[in-house]
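From the shared-data thread, chain only:
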Amino acid sequence: MYEKNVERIEQLVQEQNQWRSITINLIASENVLSRRARSVMGSDFCHRYAEGHPGERYYQGTEKIDEIETRVNQHLKALFGCRHIEVRPISGTVANDAVFSRYIHHGDVVIVNSTSGGGHISHHRLGSVGKYTENIINFPLTKDGYHIDIKETINILEKVPVKVMILGKSLYLFPDPVKELAPVCKELGIVLIYDAAHILGLIAGKRFPDPLKQGAHLVTASTHKTFFGSQRGVVLSNMKDSEWAMIDKGAFPGSSSNHHLDTLVSLAISTYEFLEYGEEYADQVVKNAKVLAQALDEAGFKVEAREFGYTETHQIAVNVMELGGGDEVARILKDNNIILNMNLLPFDPLERVSNPSGIRIGVQEMTRVGMKEKEMKQIAAFFKRCLVLGEYIGEDAKEFRKQYQIIHFSFDSDYLELRDKERALAVSK
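Structure, as tokens:
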């Protein structure tokens, strides 16, 4: 009776796979898995449970996942140089909740980045923080809107009984001042939590300051943005074992029961890929972002933060209000096979959320399929043709994207073969 419905679902999945493989994806919160990482998804692990820790499960039959989870823990600790890691959260927001639930209590004052200032929804009243307190204040920003005003923030901390500070953003061009604020937090007894969801891969690739080394108490993150793993979350810390026990309980049973073993297995493979290629990948991501930003600027677009070099991450912010606003521009680009999202820019009023001033661009996925500086300039040319000259460039974008189907920085056979050829050519020269 319902077989036709099943066939329709299968058709939609096939159409999605085909379509997105020939679009230029610039969503800043997404990435792609290697074929080998994807190949282990859908195994028997997708049926199974493994509550608790390896060797201390509440279920039998977990010996295989125990070894995999132990390996993920060990090698992620090595990658990030941290004492503790929690890999059981099934998303970055779940990782946030596991931590927020331990440190934020009713009535506590929490200081965060505002929504228009780039802060993530989980940091605000409608998100995870709002479940625990309504006393949420925003960091003061410098005139450019992309940096925290350190002096004014310290002034607030000395006058207001802030309990928890949350750094890290969703629109994230430049590092937050962890090094400057961590000593003040320590002196005043403020817990400094750093949400590294967007820049976890840049930290692992040593292309972005390490918040733990700069004094953050805890780092939360998702594992599928600049870190090119499966969609999960992690918590990192160097705190004492006795305090880490709180986070352990926050993850289980606090915010999750079974922790989606299927994606944990995939994360294991992505972790080894990042150990092998992470620094090279992160370096290319930042190079690509800077080149694309400059090329868009030269093409006449209002790229934000020009005076600061546009960006130090995978992201670029562009003010497109004169072109109809972020919603309109994102829709036009999608119709031309370029995918990105509208985004509030600093000081945008919240009532503009449905059509904000800006768009947010991320280059991490296109970097992983092998695009470099030359390709970024081509993408900027597509933007100009589409948005300024009013041309339909959808077919050109598809033909361009078809050339980039190999997942780089991976252990996929086609990439290894390509890399061997490139190395042999370099030696011959």
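Residues 192 and 217 are 5 Å apart (CA to CA).
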